[in-house]
């Protein structure tokens, strides 16, 4: 007789307006397994799990849990049935302690607060059992990102769950923290729990999973035993074609310094100190990576370099010219290309066409403008050339760019910036939100730019991206550059320690690198 699945979803459908997030998804999860949901951003993984844990209601289909059909109206209902989810974006109140966060949302929080000694004791017991190192009296605002994630995981375990759903949990972790988290998943399964691991990282999924379900465009493509597949086959399932797993990086031949940054300091958009005393050089013919856990000043560094954020002190020199304090348009006119972290905010205008977005910085310059009038023919020819060369999938140059996938939007931004033949290229999160196929293409383009003698500064939280194409890697922590390493995977532990703010004998590396 066949064993009933621990959790089964049958023909689940969910729309958000015209967008189909889940398109007839069926899936089975067995008790006591680590079941990974693998897919690109937008594949429908998180929406599916959000329906299971009561955050989103399905339009059609049914969820069967422990043999019963269920439909939860809230996460609290799901937790009462021993299902908990740790989301990619944490749901903690920063100005409360860990213990106070744990009793929020309970039926009688006042009673729990009055009995906080018992709450703290339970937190300590769970923390010790799973080696999570969570202090119940710590203020959440004082914790690192990795510590906050441990708090979130323990918060779910605090409620006695049987099914734990982890949504992209390694996105904000150092390599060492990632290793500990993957070990924790195995410990939880050994303790009788079932784990669903949502990810787009092939290596992590292969390391920890019993079974893997691949999703694409809101549908299940395939479910396989981890022991019967490999990363290459999974990548093929994710994008529908063969993908090269390794790029021929070669070695850059650095020339003169194109960009020099001296003792740069700036604040965040809300006025908090973000970058402190950063100095670096980027030379012609090299790609310099900037690694670090998200939130350590990388975003502000990129915005300050591109003129989008005022600086408090320091100098930015490009091609021997001081560009400190210039407006963004003047920075762009200085042979400076910018592929931004948030393409919707700083890279494209969603309501405009591909053609209009392709000339955003040059709409008033020849050949795109003649005597104050737009030259539609020149714009069309230029855009069609970019679409062809960069394999942008679109109807034509008049299609609104907002109708394109994230990968095709990113390819147009990359195409537009590189078409200006800049000397310096600033890239922030090159592959965020794009599929493996588009990722392969844009990374190859960066290598071509390096080999053509351009200087590239690549900021990324994806270590594999940095290892794949960088000539050297700087590490940021709390707004400072702590050190420089070669792109050598054998030194991953050292890189992870720097990302956590730990240096040899707690001594800072020299401030100026390059």
Task: Characterise the protein shown here.
The protein has three domains: 7-239, P-loop containing nucleotide triphosphate hydrolases (Rossmann fold), CATH 3.40.50; 246-335 and 422-514, P-loop containing nucleotide triphosphate hydrolases (Rossmann fold), CATH 3.40.50.300; 350-420, no CATH class. It is built from 18 helices and 23 strands. Helix 5 crosses helix 6 and helix 15 runs parallel beside helix 16. The longest helix has 16 residues, at 175-190. It is an alpha/beta fold. Mean pLDDT is 90; it is low at 505-512. The radius of gyration is 24 Å and the shape is globular.
Layout of secondary structure:
Elements: E1 7-16, E2 19-29, E3 34-38, H1 45-52, E4 60-65, E5 68-70, H2 75-80, E6 83-86, H3 98-103, H4 109-114, H5 116-129, H6 145-158, E7 163-167, H7 175-190, E8 194-199, H8 202-208, E9 211-216, E10 219-225, H9 231-239, E11 257-267, E12 273-283, E13 286-291, H10 298-305, E14 311-318, E15 321-322, H11 328-332, E16 336-339, H12 343-346, H13 354-358, E17 369-370, E18 373-374, H14 376-389, H15 406-418, E19 424-428, H16 436-451, E20 455-459, H17 463-469, E21 472-477, E22 480-485, H18 492-499, E23 512-513
Parallel strand pairs: 3-8, 3-9, 6-7, 7-8, 12-23, 13-20, 13-21, 16-19, 19-20
Antiparallel strand pairs: 1-2, 1-4, 4-5, 9-10, 11-12, 11-14, 14-15, 17-18, 21-22
